[in-house]
Design brief:
Oligomer: single chain
CATH architecture of the largest domain: 2-Layer Sandwich
CATH topology of the largest domain: Dihydrodipicolinate Reductase, domain 2
CATH class of the largest domain: Alpha Beta
Helix content: 25-40%
Length: about 450
């Protein structure tokens, strides 16, 4: 247990100082030289946060698939060992900078855009500083983990005139696009209420509790980290924004809910009896984490029974929207199978969608659709999943971001407002659970009357 505590202390100390160590003091005029463009006019990108998502989904694809449009000019992370391994994995000669050298990185490499893929709770600090130093920002979800961070983003975006793109790849999956098209068609009339139920199985679900995601201080809870995808999808499908949120949640399966626990799987004395033992040697990106483990004490194969786990594993949320739609949402992260049940109850009938991600039985289609009219029968059909990560949605999103002049008929590109709205539903849900009260979204943040980037969207 002493090793567990010491490792955690090192990680907490270093991650807490990740953004605070940066000497954020100068302004955009001290840095940006508009005469310094990428080679042949390409957009210049810097990546801050070189974990799996940043390295695999953003930096490496820039090198491999978008080199004619983009230059990767810098990498930044708090963990030097991990960043050096990531540099080799990515296949780049871009210079590397410790998080305390963030301003130096901007000054020396002159990126047009900073891609932020750090631990969730630090997104806001890097986003704000990047904009203050003259850069646009691409950020992974969730955009923020606390309401005051959202207020800071609103102020910074309006103050600097720079823009934030929130990367909601879930908007680009085949079933998500199909739902949007059906609702846009008006075939079922006005949506009156909606249902969204997320099932994470004991493989994928448990993985969140082995990592920093299981601690609310880092992730905001799965209601912010994971559910921000789902809340954004619903906001986008309904073309509306949330007004009130009421939620319930608990840690009923992981964390303290076991008779034994260890520091991490590799060193655990209970590995032979624990059904959740996970061998990091089987993990494709193991060296990305093992290479930096001694530096900050972060254990990628942490124990799912850690008593400090406080991110809910069972949760329900009720959301009322501006357009009077009522949403019933749930997420359970310890299920025997994985997928989603999504439904829209409309004036003229009901749309039901079943998403199969992993289950101990065969299915003909991973996406099952059923449209039932009130007085005109029913029809069912299926769709398949495209190749590529997250069912091809990552490729679609990256094409929109990196390739010039891409159409956006379904309005899938998400700005700061979309990112903030999805985060705020999760933040409000956590606050509702903690206070046992209904939360008004507009009590969390003072919204401007005009959102600047709205006028820039094509």
């Amino acid at each position: 247990m002493d090793n567990q505590k010491n490792g955690r202390r090192i990680f907490l100390k270093n991650t807490t100082m990740a953004a605070a160590a940066v000497p954020f003091s100068l302004s955009a005029t001290d840095f940006k030289d508009e005469s310094k463009k990428g080679s042949k006019g390409k957009t210049k990108y810097a990546l801050v946060g070189t974990g799996t998502r940043g390295s695999s989904s953003w930096a490496k694809p820039i090198i491999q698939n978008y080199a004619q449009y983009a230059d990767l000019v810098a990498l930044c992370d708090i963990n030097i060992g991990r960043m050096e391994y990531a540099k080799k994995f990515i296949g780049t000669n871009a210079p590397t900078y410790h998080s305390s050298e963030f301003e130096k990185m901007i000054s020396e490499t002159q990126p047009d855009t900073v891609i932020v893929t750090t631990t969730d709770c630090f997104h806001e600090q890097y986003i704000v500083k990047a904009m203050e130093l003259g850069c646009d920002v691409i950020s992974e979800k969730p955009l923020v983990t606390e309401a005051h961070q959202g207020q800071n983003l609103i102020a910074a975006e309006n103050r600097t005139g720079k823009k934030i793109t929130t990367t909601f790849n879930a908007r680009f999956s085949n079933e998500s696009e199909e739902i949007k098209k059906i609702l846009n068609s008006g075939e079922l009339g006005k949506v009156l209420s909606a249902e969204y139920h997320e099932y994470l199985n004991v493989d994928h679900g448990a993985s969140y509790y082995r990592r920093w995601h299981g601690k609310k201080r880092f992730s905001g809870s799965l209601l912010v980290h994971k559910a921000s995808h789902h809340f954004d999808q619903m906001n986008w499908w309904l073309d509306s924004e949330p007004v009130t949120v009421k939620a319930n949640g608990k840690v009923g399966f992981y964390g303290k809910n076991n008779s034994f626990r260890g520091s991490n799987c590799r060193t655990c004395t209970f590995k032979s009896k624990c059904e959740f033992y996970w061998d990091i040697e089987s993990y494709g990106s193991k060296e990305l984490y093992l290479s930096g483990e001694a530096e900050d004490g972060y254990l990628r194969d942490g124990c799912v029974w850690d008593k400090e786990i406080d991110s809910y594993d069972a949760m329900t949320v009720e959301v009322a929207y501006e357009n009077d739609v009522l949403l019933s949402y749930s997420l359970n992260s310890y299920m025997p199978y994985e997928g989603q049940n999504i439904a829209f109850n409309c004036e003229k009938g009901r749309l039901e969608v079943r998403v199969y991600d992993a289950q101990p039985w065969e299915v003909d289609n991973v996406f099952e659709f059923r449209i039932t009219k009130n007085f005109n029968g029913t029809k069912a059909y299926g769709l398949g999943r495209d190749s590529g990560t997250h069912g091809g949605s990552d490729d679609k999103l990256r094409d929109k971001i990196f390739k010039p002049n891409q159409p956006d008929e379904l309005k899938q590109m998400a700005d700061s407002r979309a990112g903030l709205m999805s985060s705020l539903i999760g933040i409000a849900a956590v606050k509702s659970i903690e206070t046992k009260k209904q939360i008004n979204i507009h009590d969390l943040v003072d919204f401007p009357t005009e959102w600047k980037w709205k006028t820039k969207l094509k």
